[in-house]
Amino acid sequence: MKIIKWLLFFLLIYTSTNGQQVDSDSLINDIKHKATTFFVQKGIIDKTDSNNDVNRIFLTEINERKVVGYSTNGIYRVGVFISHTPQYLLIKEGSNCSFLDVQDANTALEAIILFSRRNKLNTEATFSYLREVMKLYENNNKSNSGIVN
User: Fold this and answer.
1) Per-residue buried b or exposed e for 106-116, using 16+ beta carbons within 10 Å of the residue's own CB
2) Measured distance CA(1)–CA(13) in Å, rounded
3) Is residue 83 part of a domain?
4) Model-level pTM?
């Protein structure tokens, strides 16, 4: 049953990425490797297995629900396919990216607002990002307490 859920999840991710890839495969792989390094530093992924773990990482744009590579700029939910692990944020602007821990709410919310200003987002798009980040914060706290949505 668990395998079927994962297959459905991957199918959903694959079909939700309609549109054209805008980033090169090398940039996408670079971002995935940076994410892997980030999770090694957080102690979530074992360093000895990190070369094989790029496929255990997900990076999904939180407003557009696209995987990394299909938007030039965006704010991504980043995590690993391991139960009860926290999720983080990745702010991507062109080939530049930075990781944020949503538990540092002040820094994360400020970064969202600055991203919105730099990219001239309208108020609705900015508030949508802020709402999604707050949900991520709440889900991480529920995950840490053993209660997951």
Assistant:
1) eebbebbeebb
2) 19
3) yes
4) 0.77
The 8-class DSSP code of residue 28 comes to H
Reduced to 3 states (helix: H, G, I; strand: E, B; else coil), residue 61 is: strand
Q: Which residue has the tokens 């706290």?
A: 141
Q: Which domain holds residue 81?
A: 20-145
What number of other Cβ atoms are within 10 A of residue 118's Cβ?
Answer: 11
Query: What span, in angstroms and rounded, lies between the C-alpha atoms of 3 and 109?
Result: 36
Q: Is residue 116 part of a domain?
A: yes
Q: Is residue 6 part of a domain?
A: no
Element of type H or E holding 78: strand 73-80
Instruction: Answer yes or no: is pLDDT of 120 > 80.
Output: yes
16 vs 14: CA distance, rounded Å: 6
Q: Give 39-59 as a DSSP string.
A: HHHTTSS-GGGGGG-GGGEEE
Residue 66 pLDDT class (50, 70, 90 cuts): confident
Say if 13 falls within a structural domain: no
* pLDDT tens, residue by residue, 134-149: 999 998 888 665 444 4
Q: Residue 48 above 90 pLDDT?
A: no
- Count how many domains the chain has: 1
